[in-house]
Automatic annotation (TrEMBL):
GO terms for molecular function: glycerol-3-phosphate 2-O-acyltransferase activity; phosphatase activity. InterPro entries: HAD_RAM2/GPAT1-8, Plipid/glycerol_acylTrfase. This is Phospholipid/glycerol acyltransferase domain-containing protein. Residues 323-424 form the Phospholipid/glycerol acyltransferase domain. Belongs to the GPAT/DAPAT family. The chain crosses the membrane at residues 66-93, 262-282. GO terms for biological process: cutin biosynthetic process; phospholipid biosynthetic process. Keywords: Acyltransferase, Lipid biosynthesis, Lipid metabolism, Membrane, Phospholipid biosynthesis, Phospholipid metabolism, Transferase, Transmembrane, Transmembrane helix.
């Protein structure tokens, strides 16, 4: 693996012209073919690794998708359009000039204190672009120092929070009166200090043949420099999710795809037709009977696959009221998918939802207050009138994880039916924790295809409930979380709604 990763086919004297005159040893397959081609990997366990992010860790050679994410998520559709239409110009100018143009278009006019894209959007796409082969070698170092051509604010959270990199050196952005002006400061190494002479003597650099990536003073610390070629990068495999140093559980943003130039073109071409499709779906869901609405929506790519238990769900004759459907929370559409599954409108309770989403919902929405006693009475009152959907996670989770279930529902009724939901979209996420909440239903229905897999599990036996069975409510909540996670192939966590909003939006989830 290492032999392929660090093979050299061009002369090494070019590197010596770029870096200060020191006693560096430039390792190549020509001089160290045995150690690189036949050993599993170089031994970096006691060394500090200085690596160039874009050419060493990321498989893609294009930075355009990352700046498109900044433009769309932080600046909006108009800014994204501008960046897309200047893409041909970016292909004509040099790499350094193209980087400056993308930085200007993406950042100019954005508020510095409101910029959180680096932490809650970009990290996901960086992780999904990491090469498995290069990751293993970079992470084997005792200390890791990352160098990036992109603004530091874009890459620092990903590198430190998810990869555990010790120090990050990226380009600094100029700010005026709290707003980015779209220009970068001159590149320097202020703020990145290697601890002592002993550590400096063990520094190893990993970069590419690209001269621009090596034009950085931090590489002057390195006694050895390994080079990566574009041909080698094309053979890398994407880092599998199970090898992430820290699991990716929370992320935000509207785009559900990697916005490459071609993918961005597809999105922009879809939008006019997508708005028309949105009107059809929205209108049919709000004014037509549910069985007709389901048929109309299915014809537009809004489909549902339902799996039900062999035995029909029957109520205990000794209890009054309806059945409580307990489901995980993937999007605002979850209660609608439950309604499609049982072919009747089933009301739902919610902790927070924009007024527009509530008014435009095709099913009844009961807004909770976060006052435990009041919420309990509201749920009991609604259950006395019929069935009800509750998502005890309290917020959506896009990744294959389940947040901790709040146990209030367990003490209200023994008529509990766990329901597992997995929703797949191909263009837009229909929920956001830091964006404009009233647009959630629009983005939900704007997708070309929306498919939901609904698995209605067996009703909880009376012996396993809180009232009839005497089970603790927390035990019941944890049991249902595990059962739904098992049905979906997801992983249960102890993280809560407050944890998610603290990480993504910087608040405790008050909308």
């Amino acid at each position: 693996m290492a032999g392929k990763l660090f093979s050299l086919t061009s002369p090494c004297f070019l590197l010596s012209e770029l870096l200060p005159k020191r006693s560096h040893q430039y390792v190549s397959s020509a001089t160290n073919s045995n150690s690189l081609l036949h050993n599993t990997s170089p031994d970096f366990s006691n060394k500090t690794i200085v690596f160039h992010l874009e050419t060493t860790l990321l498989k893609s050679s294009s930075l355009f998708p990352y700046f498109m994410l900044v433009a769309f998520e932080a600046g909006g559709l108009l800014r994204a359009l501008v960046l897309f239409f200047i893409y041909p110009l970016l292909c004509l100018v040099g790499r350094n000039q193209a980087l400056k143009i993308m930085v200007f278009v993406s950042f100019v006019g954005l508020r510095q204190d409101k910029f959180r894209i680096g932490s809650y959007v970009l990290s996901k796409y960086f992780l999904e672009d990491v090469g498995n082969e290069s990751f293993s070698l970079v992470m084997s170092g005792k200390r890791k120092v990352a160098v990036s051509d992109m603004p530091r604010i874009m890459v620092e959270d990903f590198l430190k929070h998810y990869l555990g990199v010790d120090a990050v050196r990226g380009r600094e952005l100029k700010v005026f009166s709290g707003y980015f002006v779209g220009l970068m400061e001159a590149n320097n190494v202020n703020g990145v200090v290697l601890d002592d002479d002993k550590m400096l003597s063990h520094a190893v650099g990993i970069s590419s043949f690209n001269e621009y990536s090596l034009d950085h003073q931090l590489f002057s610390y390195c006694k050895e420099i390994y080079l990566v070629s574009e041909a080698d990068k094309r053979n890398w495999q994407i880092l599998p999710r199970e090898k992430y140093p820290k699991p990716l559980i929370f992320h935000d943003g509207r785009l559900a795809f990697r916005p490459t130039p071609l993918a961005s073109l597809a999105m922009l071409m879809w939008l006019p037709l997508g708005i028309f499709i949105f009107i059809i779906r929205y209108t049919s869901s709000t004014i037509l009977p549910i069985h007709i609405s389901h048929a109309v929506n299915s014809s537009t790519g809004f489909t549902t696959t339902v799996s039900k238990p062999k035995a029909s769900i029957t109520k205990n004759d000794k209890t009054s009221g309806g059945v409580l459907y307990i489901c995980n929370h993937r999007s605002l559409l979850d209660p609608i998918f439950v309604s499609y599954s049982v072919m009747k409108p089933v009301p739902a309770v919610t902790y927070s939802m924009s007024r527009f989403s509530e008014v435009s919902s095709p099913i009844k929405i009961i807004r909770l207050t976060r006052d435990r006693e009041k919420d309990k009475k509201l749920i009991e009152q609604q259950l006395s009138q019929g069935d009800l959907v509750v998502c005890p996670e309290g917020t959506t989770c896009r990744e294959p994880y389940l947040l901790r279930f709040r146990p209030l529902f367990a003490e209200i009724t023994d008529e509990i039916v766990p329901t597992a939901i997995d929703m797949q979209v191909d263009m837009f996420y229909g929920s956001t924790d830091s964006g404009i909440k009233c647009l959630d239903p629009v983005f939900n229905l704007l997708n070309p295809y929306i498919h939901c897999y609904v698995t209605i599990l067996d009703k909880i036996p009376s012996s396993q409930t809180c009232k009839a069975g005497g089970k603790p409510r927390i035990e019941i909540a944890n049991h249902l979380q595990k059962e739904i996670a098992k049905a979906l192939g997801f992983e249960s966590t102890i993280l809560t709604r407050e944890d998610k909003y603290t990480i993504l939006a910087g608040n405790e989830g008050k909308v």
